[in-house]
Write a structure and sequence with these properties.
Blueprint (H helix, E strand, L loop, with lengths): L2 H21 L18 E8 L5 E7 L6 H12 L16 E8 L3 E2 L8 H4 L6 E6 L2 E5 L2 H6 L3 H11 L13 E5 L1 E6 L6 E3 L1
Antiparallel strand pairs: 1-2, 1-3, 3-8, 4-7, 5-6, 5-7, 8-9
Length: 196
């Protein structure tokens, strides 16, 4: 995706969020939806406080089950109601910045033994999903960069996100998937958008 498409994604996510929070109204897809947004894709919407840049909500659809524009509407609304926080209030709309991550389809990482997973993962490039039994968890590619994690720490936090022990990634029955994302975000509320 180029910057123009990224700007469309973030501005549209902002419109969806503001309509939902301020008016309780769910926006439909725009009449002039770019064709790339009609292709099925995973997407996450992340909200940060401004200027502190504390996480305020992050929800998404990791798998390409619906057109990007529909997934974006769902992720944007859901991010305002992230269960880790109280619902986003009307008075906060001018105090948050919005980031949209458009995902590639997750691919299973194949390694001859679990100890080899770290050699297949690159910090800053790969987002990860773990599946083990009924548990699953996901962390976006930007998360380990923001926290300064190495690959092993990234995998441990991924396990914790799935409510698994930190070393669950070493289990033979754990499946690890990687994906990449193109990230676009506001520099300030309703401000300039850049590719991250």
């Amino acid at each position: 995706m180029d910057l123009k498409q990224g700007e469309f994604a973030v501005k549209f996510a902002r419109r969806v969020i503001e309509a939902w929070v301020a008016e309780g109204k769910e926006l439909g897809k725009p009449e002039k939806t770019p064709k790339d947004f009609l292709v099925k894709s995973g997407v996450f919407t992340t909200l940060y406080t401004y200027p502190e840049r504390d996480l305020r909500g992050c929800i998404g659809l990791p798998y390409p089950h619906k057109p990007l524009i529909d997934a974006l509407i769902e992720a944007a609304i859901s991010a305002t109601q992230d269960s880790r926080f109280i619902g986003l209030g009307k008075g906060e709309l001018g105090k948050i910045i919005i980031e949209v991550s458009i995902l590639t389809p997750p691919e299973k990482i194949t390694a001859s033994r679990p100890e080899d997973y770290p050699m297949e993962i690159k910090i800053g490039r790969d987002g990860l999903i773990i599946k083990k039994g009924m548990h699953s968890g996901l962390l976006l590619p930007q998360v380990p960069v923001e926290y300064g994690w190495d690959v092993k720490t990234f995998l441990e936090h991924l396990c914790n996100k799935a409510f698994l022990p930190s070393d669950a990634w070493l289990s033979r029955d754990a499946e690890i998937y990687s994906f990449r994302s193109e990230i676009f975000g506001e520099k300030k509320p309703r401000g300039r958008i850049e590719k991250m």
